[in-house]
């Protein structure tokens, strides 16, 4: 795990503790980190604000079959580390004064379908200039899909955390 992550969650980067579970949620520190990285995220300094345009993450909600649609968005910050608001498709995140990791649930509604995507927020004092928020880049094979592979992984796995599904798949493959 990178030092910035360990410092952000209050772990010691000089200790090999990636298999610890200090919050007793059944997930190791490494699994928590991989789960964070598996979702879109934004990184902020404490007591700062930032924006994230979520439109690329919900491309399929802008109309199909020649029907133009302008979806609406709502945001629900989880926990007390941050507040969030949305204007059109731009989410503004305001970080608390302390470091930590939080989550924002962004829900899109196109009048027919509602879908919620989780976005991570890392509030850290560590230098993060080399780490940038993920931005989806459509490829010819995935451009038609309105939802990243996360939805596929979630549908195939009985657990709710897609990182666990990926780890289970990797473990099964290594035993085969």
Q: Can you characterise this structure?
A:
By secondary structure, the protein is an alpha+beta fold. The chain is built from four helices and seven strands, in the order ααβββββββαα. Strand 4 (82-87) and strand 5 form a beta hairpin. The protein starts with a helix and ends with a helix. 21% of the residues are buried.
Question: Which stretches of 5+ consecutive residues score pLDDT under 50?
Answer: 138-176
Give the full name of the CATH homologous superfamily: Immunoglobulins
User: What's the domain count?
Assistant: 1
The shape, in one word, is: elongated
**Mean pLDDT over the full residue set:** 77
Tell me the Rg in angstroms.
17 Å
* Separation of the first and last Cα atoms: 27 Å
- Share in β-strands: 25-35%
Alpha-beta content class? alpha+beta
Percent of residues in helices: 10-25%
CATH class: Mainly Beta
Short description:
The protein is of the alpha+beta class and 176 residues long. The chain has 4 helices and 7 strands; from the N terminus they run ααβββββββαα.
How would the blueprint of this fold be written?
Blueprint: H1 3-9, H2 29-37, E1 41-44, E2 49-53, E3 72-78, E4 82-87, E5 90-95, E6 100-109, E7 114-123, H3 149-156, H4 162-175
Parallel strand pairs: 1-7
Antiparallel strand pairs: 2-5, 3-6, 4-5, 6-7
Helix pairs in contact: 2-4
């Amino acid at each position: 795990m990178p030092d910035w992550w360990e410092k952000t969650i209050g772990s010691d980067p000089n200790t090999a503790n990636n298999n610890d579970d200090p919050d007793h949620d059944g997930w190791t520190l490494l699994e928590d980190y991989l789960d964070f990285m598996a979702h879109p995220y934004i990184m902020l300094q404490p007591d700062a604000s930032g924006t994230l345009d979520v439109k690329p993450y919900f491309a399929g909600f802008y109309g199909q079959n020649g029907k133009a649609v302008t979806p609406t968005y709502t945001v629900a910050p989880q926990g007390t580390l941050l507040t969030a608001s949305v204007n059109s498709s731009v989410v503004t995140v305001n970080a608390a004064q302390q470091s930590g990791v939080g989550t924002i649930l962004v829900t899109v509604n196109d009048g027919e379908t509602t879908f919620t995507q989780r976005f991570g927020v890392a509030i850290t004092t560590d230098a993060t200039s080399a780490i940038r928020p993920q931005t989806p880049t459509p490829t010819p094979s995935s451009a038609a899909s309105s939802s990243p592979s996360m939805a596929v992984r979630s549908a195939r796995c009985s657990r709710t955390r897609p990182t666990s599904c990926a780890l289970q798949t990797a473990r099964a493959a290594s035993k085969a």
